[in-house]
From TrEMBL:
PANTHER family: BLR1237 PROTEIN (PTHR42928:SF5), TRICARBOXYLATE-BINDING PROTEIN (PTHR42928)
Name of the protein in its database record: Tripartite tricarboxylate transporter substrate binding protein
UniProt-listed Pfam families: TctC (PF03401)
Signal peptide segment: 1-19
Length: 324
């Protein structure tokens, strides 16, 4: 009898092991990396740097595809329709993964319950830059100008419901001024009109705005963090500028189709974490004004996104911004 039990167990253990989901030979074909924003922005830079490194590391192509429409709604929908096998990923931002919860009355794919998560690859502070023709150098001067000219000035963003939209609306609300939001298809398109003087100011990541600020194409007004950024050391923080409530940092989440096996998501997290330790990737992201978080496991990522939704939805409602 004892020998029969041992023999039965010997047969059962491999069967149980085979039934457990594993990363196995993943990836054994190209992986699609959908980016919820247009090319040229911080999420796109993260996606391309990391995807290139993953392709080299794992021997399969991680192919970046931009899906910027609807502030991430289109990309989320495409992800939800994909097989839950780890071969379609989504890279987003604060807007796509948190702000949309406050902007839309109903989301077809909710960022907490409609997708699974892998990790967060970077954080990037939000800064505000103005066209030099405004002739303002401080936040106080900027506020006074807008107060004297209610509704005259406008600000661009990478699209309705994006981080730049809400960061701009938040600033306008906190300052008690009036300005008109103009949505574009991506940060680069919005910045083109800012540089040309067709819009007055823009809120965007310091990683995106630092170079034109240094070049003098636009004038930095404030950075929405407690500490100054090495990317723009002369740019005062919101606290230094007298508006401590203006705190805004975006982040770059990597998500997978709901139901993607945990071992695959854990494998992806570990591989991205290794890539982020590579000097060429890490140094480039830091050079662009990003900070690299540690320990952003799939579970930690989900908890972080939940906390950001809880923080930002009331802010979105307070600004009065909406999409539908």
């Amino acid at each position: 009898m004892g020998r029969l039990i041992v023999a039965a167990l010997a047969l059962l253990v491999p069967a149980l092991a085979a039934a457990q989901p594993r990363a196995g030979d993943y990836p054994n074909k190209p992986v699609r990396v959908l980016v919820a924003l247009a090319a040229g922005g911080n999420a796109d830079i993260n996606a391309r740097l990391i995807s290139t490194a993953l392709s080299q590391r794992l021997g399969q192509q991680f192919v970046v595809e931009n899906r910027p429409s609807g502030g991430g709604i289109v990309a989320f929908g495409e992800l939800a329709r994909s097989a839950p096998d780890g071969y379609t990923l989504l890279v987003g931002a604060l807007g796509s993964h948190a702000l949309n919860v406050g902007l839309y009355r109903r989301l077809a794919v909710h960022p907490l319950t409609g997708v699974d998560h892998v990790t967060i690859s970077s954080h990037s502070a939000i800064a505000v830059a103005a066209h030099p023709s405004l002739n303002v150098t401080t936040l106080a001067e900027f506020r006074d100008l807008l107060l004297r000219n209610p509704g005259r000035y406008n600000y661009g963003s990478s699209g309705n419901g994006t981080t730049g939209h809400i960061a701009g609306a938040m600033l306008v609300s906190l300052l008690g001024v009036q300005a008109t939001h103009v949505p574009y298809r991506g940060s680069a398109a919005a910045f083109s009109d800012l540089a040309g003087g067709r819009t007055a100011f823009q809120a965007d990541t310091i990683s995106f705005l630092s170079e034109p600020i240094r070049a003098g194409t636009v004038r930095g007004i404030v950075i929405a963090t407690p500490q100054r950024s090495p990317m723009a050391p002369d740019l005062p923080t919101s606290t230094e500028a007298g508006l401590p409530a203006y705190q805004a940092t975006t982040w770059t989440p990597w998500s997978a189709t709901l139901g993607t096996p945990a071992p695959i998501r854990q494998f992806l997290y570990e591989q991205i974490a290794e890539v982020l330790r590579q000097p060429d990737v890490r140094d480039r992201l830091i050079q662009l004004g990003n900070t690299i978080p540690e320990g952003m496991t799939p579970d930690a990522t989900r908890a972080f996104i939940a906390s950001e939704i809880e923080r930002w939805v009331p802010i979105v409602h307070a600004t009065g911004a909406s999409v539908d």
